[in-house]
Design a protein that fits this description.
It is a single chain. The protein is 33% helix and 25% strand. The chain has 9 helices and 13 strands. The chain has an 8-stranded antiparallel sheet with strand order 5-4-3-2-9-8-7-6. It has a 5-stranded antiparallel sheet with strand order 1-10-11-12-13. The longest helix has 15 residues. The N and C termini lie far apart (47 Å).
Length: 277
């Protein structure tokens, strides 16, 4: 079934982009920076047991019209639709998340990222990783350090896989590992269903939100709120209750929540507040 056309004007208003739209590296960089600053990473629907559709109409309604956020499959699928509507050549990849996992754990491919082919070469574009999300496209070349407005990144060639790393506080940390195998929508739908519904999925059991601007990264995991700025120690505080979390989601992450969404979240947030800090 054909997807409905993307409302580019509405998307540009959502992310605050008023610049060029030709399919160039400069346009891609501007869109990625604006997207991650204005459309937050969040998992409220899996946390509430709600379905997470990936069709273009649903994504536009949720992330653009209703000013909600989403996680990688939602964010990067929407971004892919936008880029293709502008004339970019885009390929979806899947990755195994390594960030903050114990060594030796083989994770399933539960992260979606994008390859964008440009005259300058192929680039990695990702608006849906959450906390340490790249704020700029990265050349799909291994072995070089690539600066961004926040931290530098690099890709490592691991003999059949590529690993994306970020340097935080003078230490390189691996975010995820991936192969350059194109993913079809049905592949992504299966992985999306797993992370949105599996009883052991982190997205089903924890509240997670993140947003990256040109100067800082904000993150929320359950009631723990943090702000990360390059060259500085993270500032962390535990929010006292569910009402404070709802306030942070709206104020710090820019989410627009309906009365129904606020009510549905209250019970889950109260339960999270009872967990040990």
């Amino acid at each position: 079934m054909d997807q409905p056309p993307i409302d580019l004007d509405a998307y540009f208003r959502r992310i605050g982009h008023a610049g060029p739209t030709k399919p160039t590296l400069a346009t891609l960089a501007a869109l990625q920076a604006a997207h991650v600053a204005q459309i937050p990473f969040e998992n409220l629907d899996p946390l509430l047991g709600r379905p997470v559709p990936l069709d273009a109409a649903a994504l536009q309604d949720k992330l653009v019209r209703r000013r909600r956020g989403g996680y990688c499959f939602e964010q990067n699928t929407l971004f892919q639709h936008v880029l293709e509507a502008l004339g970019f050549l885009v390929t979806a990849y899947a990755a195994r998340v390594v960030y903050r996992r114990p060594p030796g754990i083989v994770a399933p491919r539960t992260h979606m990222l994008l390859r964008v082919d440009l005259p300058e070469g192929p680039f990695l574009a990702d608006v849906g990783f959450g906390g340490p999300n790249p704020t700029a496209p990265l050349a799909l070349r291994a072995g070089i350090e690539q600066p961004t407005a926040l931290e530098p990144f690099r890709l490592l060639d691991l003999s059949g896989e590529l690993a994306l790393e970020i340097r935080q506080q003078d230490e390189w940390q691996t975010l995820y590992r991936f192969t350059i195998e194109p993913q079809h929508p049905v592949d992504l739908a299966m992985a999306n269903w797993f992370v949105a519904t599996h009883p052991e999925s982190r997205f089903v059991n924890q509240l997670i939100a993140a947003r990256s601007t040109a100067t800082s990264r904000m993150a929320l995991v359950d009631l723990d709120y943090s702000v990360h700025r390059p060259g500085c120690q993270p500032v962390r505080r535990r929010l006292p209750d569910g009402a404070a979390v709802l306030g942070a989601l709206e104020r710090e992450f820019g989410l627009s929540l309906t009365d129904g969404e606020r009510s549905a979240l209250s019970a889950r947030l109260d339960a999270l507040a009872q967990r040990p800090g």
